[in-house]
Amino acid sequence: MAALDLFGRRWALRILWELRDQTLGFRPLQQRCDGMSSSVLQQRLTELQETLLVERDAQDGYRLTPLGKGACDELRGLHRWSERWAAELDRAAPDGPDAKP
Question: What is the number of structural domains in the chain?
């Protein structure tokens, strides 16, 4: 499976993002992903493990591999950009911070 195909699947990037700074067990990861169904989470975790982006540790937690950490490094740049974009949208909104009374 090509990385972009996997990244385009629902929840895949969110799972990587939630694992960016810590190892998480299945239930805590599911909670951080707004309670996605356990079957979808299991499917995505399997795909992420097969593509060497995520691995399980000895305590049954999930963590990023070095390749997964590299993907998250790229996501951090996209996250910073999205924050700037959201701020710009807020400033441009008719009732945003720069709105004239």
Answer: 1
99 in a structural domain: no
Amino acid at 13: L
Residue whose C-alpha is closest to residue 68's, from 79, 80, 76, 59: 76
**Does residue 85 lie in a domain region?**
yes
Q: Which domain range does residue 78 map to? A: 3-92
Rounded to two decimals, what is the model's pTM? Answer: 0.79
* Ordered per-residue pLDDT tens for the chain, 101 residues: 666 678 888 899 999 999 999 999 999 999 999 979 999 999 999 999 999 999 999 898 999 999 999 998 888 888 899 999 999 999 998 876 655 55
- Which residues are within 8 A (CB) of 6 and not within 5 positions of it... i.e. 6 or more apart? 12, 47, 48, 51, 53
